[in-house]
Amino acid sequence: MWPREQSGPGRLRGRARPDEPSRGVDTRRPVPRAARIAGGLVGAEGVAGVVVGVVELIRGLTAGAASPRGAYGLAFWLIPMGAAVLAGGWALWSGRRWGRTLGVLANLLLLPVGYTMAFQSHLAGFGIPVLILALAVLVLLFSPATVAWLDRGYGRRG
């Protein structure tokens, strides 16, 4: 085992050996198309969360919201959550397996949101697209190609 070298000019950072791939990225096999598409969709969900959070923050600051406290609360929840989901989308797109966890969790949470908007709040124009998007991302994240890609890094055979 190679000892970790100190950082500095001409030194390696965070790698135990010069031939070791960077952490979390499977350089041996390309990312499957389903995982890349899911990464793009999850990233778009993250961008939407950040944008809505910023809009709510601006509404709260300019007294455009009926309840500034509610606008601040929503903004300070949506901005970090949207950023985390965006990071998960980027991770999937770039071949890092940890992004799947954020994508699955975000879309599992979107399912009841879409259902409530579509069927209980009578906002089918918003709820049904959210449901379709969440289901599509979950199907992509649990597709055989994506699961096989995720399983490769654990040394299993067969």
Give a brief rundown of this model.
With 158 residues, the chain is mostly helical. 65% of the residues lie in helices and 0% in strands. The protein has five helices and no strands.
Task: Supply the key terms.
158 residues, mainly alpha, disordered N terminus
Task: Please provide a written account of the structure.
The protein is mainly α. Helix content is 65%, strand content 0%. Helix 1 packs across helix 3, helix 1 packs antiparallel against helix 4 and helix 2 packs across helix 3.
Task: Give the percentage of residues in beta strands.
Answer: under 5%
Instruction: Please give the count of helices.
Output: 5
Tell me the structural class. Answer: mainly alpha
Can you write the helix and strand succession as a string?
HHHHH
Q: What share of the residues lie within helices?
A: 55-70%
Radius of gyration over alpha carbons?
A: 20 Å
Mean pLDDT: 86
Please tally the β strands and state the result.
Answer: 0
Coarse morphology? elongated
Poorly predicted ranges? 1-8, 10-21
How far is it from the N-terminal to the C-terminal residue, by CA?
Answer: 29 Å
Main pleated-sheet profile: none
Task: List the topology elements.
Layout: H1 33-61, H2 68-93, H3 99-120, H4 124-141, H5 144-151
